[in-house]
């Protein structure tokens, strides 16, 4: 069991965590230690690393876990796509043996063309229950949730009932999908309260820096609510190529500038809301994180 449960810390004070991914290029791999050093300068409570559904990047995830562990607390994302019970047990045992006892238990996004997990577990809740039955309290377990409901859900209420199920099976806290719409988040959080969901919530924010980044993260898989003030950032800088198709770097720079200020302002609005933690999707970009934190004044 972790010495201090992160979820207990979340109940006592506002936490800060970052999310990175295993780099896909040699250049990215070379840069990552420096990125982690820079992120660590902000004294995060932990840094998490994504895990490719179907175990496509297990080795890379383990290397990143090692780099994070050398600096601070590490949390691995873990999906049950394509895994048997035995496969899950072996991998989790490996994490424990290498000092990783904090996990974000996910179903995972289906690889292209898949319609199910093709494994022993159909849902993240099955994974949470299995981890608790196999490993007791040895893992701190986070689970994912999306304000408004996951894209595949029957209804928001149904989705919330499954989130409650994850809590009942032993989840320690929630990390949310990108939450740009604070008003939408407030309504959702009230519904969680009514459903008896009492575990702490880590609110996910991705620094807004590029049009493609926002569009991809919000719409490729997640259907995130986009509030008017974020829509304005997109609209103000939408045309970032001239009529001949040449890129306009000054428009991209202006987007980043307005996007970072929007992100810092959003962060501050969340801080005044009294949430448990902020999970910044750092996406291996320490400079963006630095700017958002500097402009917001949080942890600097
Ligand atoms: P589930 O909780 O299983 O929910 C999926 C759907 O099934 C929902 O519609 C829900 O309402 C429904 N449902 C849930 N439980 C049950 C049940 N017992 N019976 C019937 N229906 C049920 N993906 C990756 O592949 N790798 C990552 O590293 C990764 N990191 C992420 C980090 C964060 C912070 C977040 C928020 C998401 C991340 N994802 C990642 C994406 C995530 O895997 C997807 O959103 C995925 O589609 C659903 O995962 P889940 O754990 O929410 O699934």
Structure description:
There is one protein chain. This protein has 300 residues and is of the alpha/beta class. Helices cover 47% and strands 14% of the residues. The chain contains 11 helices and 8 strands. The protein has helices spanning 6-12, 26-40, 58-69, 85-97, 124-135, 156-169, 182-194, 211-219, 228-236, 249-273, 286-296, and strands at 15-20, 46-49, 74-79, 102-106, 140-145, 173-178, 201-205, 277-280. Strands 1-2-3-4-5-6-7-8 form an 8-stranded parallel barrel, surrounded by 5 helices. The longest helix is centred in the C-terminal third of the chain and has 25 residues, at 249-273. The protein is globular, with a radius of gyration of 19 Å. Residues 50-51, 53, 77, 79, 104, 106-109, 123-125, 144, 150, 152-153, 158-159, 162, 165, 175, 177, 204 line the site of flavin-adenine dinucleotide. Flavin-adenine dinucleotide (FAD) is lined by residues 50-51, 53, 77, 79, 104, 106-109, 123-125, 144, 150, 152-153, 158-159, 162, 165, 175, 177, 204.
In short:
This protein has 300 residues and is an alpha/beta fold. It has helices at residues 6-12, 26-40, 58-69, 85-97, 124-135, 156-169, 182-194, 211-219, 228-236, 249-273, 286-296; strands at 15-20, 46-49, 74-79, 102-106, 140-145, 173-178, 201-205, 277-280. The mean pLDDT is 96.
Structural Rg = 19 Å
Alpha plus pi helix count = 11
Helix-strand pattern:
HEHEHEHEHEHEHEHHHEH
Identify every distinct bound molecule in the structure, by name, code or SMILES.
Answer: flavin-adenine dinucleotide
Q: What share of residues is helical?
A: 40-55%
Number of DSSP strands?
Answer: 8
Looking across the biggest beta sheet, what order are the strands in?
1-2-3-4-5-6-7-8
Strand proportion, as a percent range, falls in: 5-15%
Can you give the mean pLDDT? 96
Q: Can you summarize the main beta sheet?
A: 8 strands, parallel, barrel
List low-pLDDT spans.
none
Overall morphology: globular
Distance between the termini: 31 Å
Class by SSE composition: alpha/beta
